[in-house]
Design goal:
7 helices; about 190 residues; three-stranded mixed sheet; alpha+beta; two-stranded antiparallel sheet; about 15% strand; globular
C-alpha cells in the first residue's frame, strides 16, 4: 500500500498499527475510544476530504428539502436552508481509506449500521430511515453547527476532537446539542 504523504509527513497506513493505537478502555459500562493524538492528526485531513467528497456528491445529485423538512431545518437553526440537498441511499458509505474506516467504526462515528449523516449542506439518509423525523432533525442540527463553526473543515475538526475524548458516541457537546434539540422539537410537536 502506498503511504499518504502531506508536507513531507508520512500518513499512517498500517492497519495493524492503527488497531494497536486505537484502544477501548471500559469506563462505566461504555467503551472509551482512545486514538493517539499523532494518528488523529494524520487521519483528520483524510476525514475532512471524505466529508467534502460526500457533501459534493450529495449537492450534485441530491434534491432540495421538501416543505416539512424545510420547516424542521428552520427550527434546527439552519440559516441557508435552500443550499441543503438530500440524498437517499441504500447504505451510508464508509470511507474508502482503510485506516479512516477502521477509526470511524472504532469510535462509533460511521459504521454499517449508520442510518443518516448530515454536514456541510448535505443530508445523506438511508431509504429505510426516511420517516424518522428525530433522526433527520438531529442531522439538520449538525448542518446548522457546520454553519456556526464557519464551514465543514472547522466543524469536522471540532466534531472529531469531541469524539476522541468521549466515552461513547452520545456524549460530547455537538452530539448532546443535536440529540437534545431534535428530541425537544419532536416532543413539542407531539404535544401541540
Amino acid at each position: 500500500m502506498t503511504p499518504y504523504v502531506r508536507s513531507g509527513t508520512k500518513f499512517f497506513t498500517n492497519v495493524a498499527l492503527l488497531r494497536t493505537a486505537c484502544a477501548f478502555t471500559p469506563v462505566r459500562k461504555f467503551p472509551l475510544a482512545v486514538v493517539d493524538q499523532e494518528i488523529f492528526e494524520q487521519l483528520l485531513p483524510l476525514a475532512y476530504q471524505w466529508a467534502r467528497m460526500q457533501e459534493e456528491f450529495a449537492l450534485a445529485r441530491g434534491v432540495p428539502l421538501g416543505p416539512r423538512h424545510t420547516a424542521d431545518a428552520r427550527q434546527a437553526g439552519v440559516e441557508e436552508i435552500s443550499r441543503i440537498r438530500v440524498l437517499v441511499v441504500d447504505r451510508i458509505p464508509l470511507p474508502e481509506n482503510e485506516e479512516l474506516a477502521l477509526a470511524a467504526r472504532r469510535m462509533g462515528i460511521i459504521s454499517e449500521d449508520t442510518r443518516c449523516i448530515g454536514f456541510g449542506y448535505a443530508l445523506i439518509i438511508r431509504a429505510d430511515a426516511w420517516n424518522d423525523r428525530e433522526l433527520i432533525l438531529h442531522n439538520l442540527i449538525h448542518i446548522a453547527q457546520c454553519e456556526r463553526a464557519g464551514g465543514l473543515e472547522q466543524w469536522v475538526r471540532h466534531y472529531l476532537t469531541d469524539r476522541t475524548h468521549c466515552p461513547n458516541f452520545t456524549i460530547g457537546p455537538l452530539e448532546e446539542e443535536a440529540r437534545g434539540l431534535a428530541r425537544a422539537i419532536c416532543s413539542a410537536s407531539a404535544a401541540a
